[in-house]
């Protein structure tokens, strides 16, 4: 009986190994069906480096943002803040949760503004919005606080 179990175990292991390889292959094959344009877009660099004194071929995101005018607090929240503040990543106060925001509001708006600009704990400076002006950061904080009372 024990030899029968060993044979069954080997066959099961072989089948599971084959299934694992097949799953790996299917995820690789799915990329094969993409057009060259899709692949180029997927692997395109996320930015360019410009050297001081040399002309850059691509305008910076800051210039583009400046040309569009100031963005609303809601727009900044939706684009840059929601990833952490919607679920409370690393202790971030959750949007809409008055209990999370109350201690921060108690410290005053200037404290929240300083923390948002300089970063605090796991939050990076400007909360990942490197193109945000101080006024846009202020608007995002006001939007989050106003909707978390």
């Amino acid at each position: 009986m024990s030899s029968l179990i060993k044979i069954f175990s080997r066959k099961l292991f072989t089948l599971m190994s084959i299934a694992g390889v097949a799953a790996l292959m299917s995820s690789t094959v799915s990329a094969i069906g993409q057009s060259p344009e899709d692949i180029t877009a997927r692997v395109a660099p996320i930015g360019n480096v410009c050297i001081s004194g040399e002309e850059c071929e691509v305008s910076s995101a800051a210039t583009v943002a400046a040309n569009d005018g100031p963005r609303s607090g809601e727009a900044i929240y939706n684009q840059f803040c929601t990833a952490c503040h919607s679920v409370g990543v690393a202790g971030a106060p959750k949007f809409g949760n008055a209990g999370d925001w109350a201690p921060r509001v108690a410290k005053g708006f200037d404290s929240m503004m300083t923390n948002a600009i300089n970063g605090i704990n796991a939050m990076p400076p400007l909360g990942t919005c490197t193109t945000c002006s101080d006024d846009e950061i202020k608007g995002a904080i006001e939007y989050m606080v106003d909707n978390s009372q």
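The domain at 68-146 is CATH 1.10.760.10 (Cytochrome Bc1 Complex; Chain D, domain 2). Confidence is low (pLDDT under 50) at residues 59-65.
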